[in-house]
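Reviewer has doubts. Consider these tokens.
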Amino acid sequence: MSLTEQINTDIKNAMKAREKEKLNALRDIKAKLLLEATASGAQEEVSEAQENKIILKLHKQRMESYALYIEQGREDLAADEKFQADIIEAYLPKMMSEEEVKAEVAQAITDLGAQGPQDMGKVMGALSKKLAGQADGKMISTLVKEGLNNL
């Protein structure tokens, strides 16, 4: 079952259960997926990589809003953002562990023949495409810096 089909099923279940807050989060995901599908001009399904990217972006936005509301002392709004982030989190792709990312970084450094920190852009470009939606960009960047500085 594709992510879009799963979201549609979960929307129906949330409507039947009268879960208004959950329904809002699910409808937001569905809207973003539909927007991405129609943005290309064709009425095609969104690829799994695009779905993962959208879900990650939505989750990140909710967590940033949550942190901002906490910082400003707005616990009422923070609770809503946290609830929606938790709903979206259920649809996040499985993330790679730090050890798996380290192995990918080492392999990329070897494959690209990186000589040192000056090759950071080349290594990051390759890894960002390869690991999109599977690993956090900050973690990749940190591990690439570490790997290049140890050459």
About this structure: The helical segments are 3-17, 20-39, 48-71, 75-89, 98-112, 120-130, 137-149. The chain has a mean pLDDT of 89. The chain has seven helices and no strands. The longest helix spans residues 48-71.
